[in-house]
Amino acid sequence: MSFLFPPLRFGRIEIPFPVIQAALSGYSDAPMRNMARRFGAMFTLCEVLLDQFVIAVSKRKSRMYFAQFDEHPVGAQLMGSEPEQFVRAAERLIGEGFDLIDLNFACPVKKVLGRGRGGFLLSQPQTALKIVETVRRNLPDSIPLTIKLRKGFDDSPESREKFFEILDGSVQLGVCGVTVHGRTVRQRYEGISDWQFISDVKRRLHEQRRSEISVIGSGDLFTPEICLQRLRESEVDGLALARGTIGNPWLFRDIAALLQGQPKPEPPTLEEQRHILAEHFHLAVELYGERRAPTTMRAFGVKYSLLHPETEKIRQAFVKVKTVSDWYRVLEMYFSK
Mind listing the pLDDT tens digit for each residue in 204-259? Predict the structure, then answer.
């Protein structure tokens, strides 16, 4: 399989298709990652994991959160505030079979910021770099380490300086890749992702002769045409698809077609949608059990409904799902030939 762009590299890991499934809290569990791979994703990230949780969760319960369905390579994204906690969590995740560790310095959720985690660390370069240094020093050399950043904590010049202090310091400490979301922490998901800033990050590393550091762009990647445009114009090494893939794993297939110089495939038929909705739900039942899977999958059903010609009716139907039979009843009523 040949693409119009070079492979994406994270240390020893080479990914021919330079479009990955981003870590999505509450979404990118094993079933979602399985769907992404089925439609062409060659690298996926587990949903964001709190370091304290990873350390404390029992072996029996860990399968629900760490299950991988034999998918490789796969990365684990960690969030926390204490360097030593990061290390202990990373060591456990490596033991569970993850191929890469990604450090989250980007999450904009208020309760996360209030505990000194995620995007808060963009305002604390010394702490962020201490975490990077400690984790890299304790990881095996064979395990790639990457970081997830936002454009800054806010739009101030001081915040921009801190962003580049963390970026440059992390590169010197041994990270091999950085994902940059083109909004600040303060913006959350408001406004437009700043792809010029993301391009500037790539250009900066190129000028520093650090082109071996992979720069991944993120933000507002909802159509294959936009994804192709962002790859071409920003000259980043790859894209991390996030909200655009919830309920739409076909996005990977469509981007792959364009990156191979082929026409964009036709949208999935109702029958094709029904098949994937059934398979995704089946994987969720296997992982979570019949009691929890229906409520877990409701959010996915709402997103899948956007592809249906009767979006609002389907959305309302999925919102009411409480049991396994409820899910399949929606498929029978609205996704039949």
Answer: 999 999 989 999 999 999 999 999 999 999 999 999 999 999 999 999 999 999 99
Of 46, 107, 176, 227, the active-site residue reads 107
Give the CA count within 13 Å in the CB-facing half-sphere of 180: 27
d(CA 325, CA 38): 25
* Residue 21 and residue 148 share a domain: yes
Which residue is associated with the tokens 């909705």?
Answer: 277
> Helices in the chain by DSSP H: which ranges?
30-38, 51-56, 59-66, 83-95, 110-113, 125-138, 157-173, 195-207, 224-234, 250-259, 270-288, 293-304, 311-319, 324-334
CB 268 within 8 A of CB 250: yes
How many Cβ atoms sit within 10 Å of the Cβ of residue 229? 12
The answer to whether residue 327 sits within a structural domain is: yes
Q: Looking at residue 26, what is its pLDDT? A: 87
Which among 10, 12, 9, 15 is positioned nearest to 259, based on CA atoms? 15
What letter would DSSP give residue 4? Answer: S
Residues 316, 192, single domain; the answer is no
pTM: 0.95
Residue 64 exposure: Cα atoms within 13 Å on the Cβ side: 12
CA 152 to chain centre: 19
> 259, 286, 304 — which closes off a domain?
259
Q: What is the pLDDT of residues 264-280, one digit of tens each?
A: 999 999 999 999 999 99
- Cα–Cα distances (Å) from 303 to 169, 275, 306, in that order, read 39, 16, 6
Domain enclosing residue 60, as ranges: 8-259
pLDDT tens figures, 110-126: 999 999 999 999 999 99
* Contacts for 157 with CB less than 8 Å, ≥ 6 apart: none
Domain boundary at 211, 240, 259, which? Answer: 259
107 a catalytic residue: yes
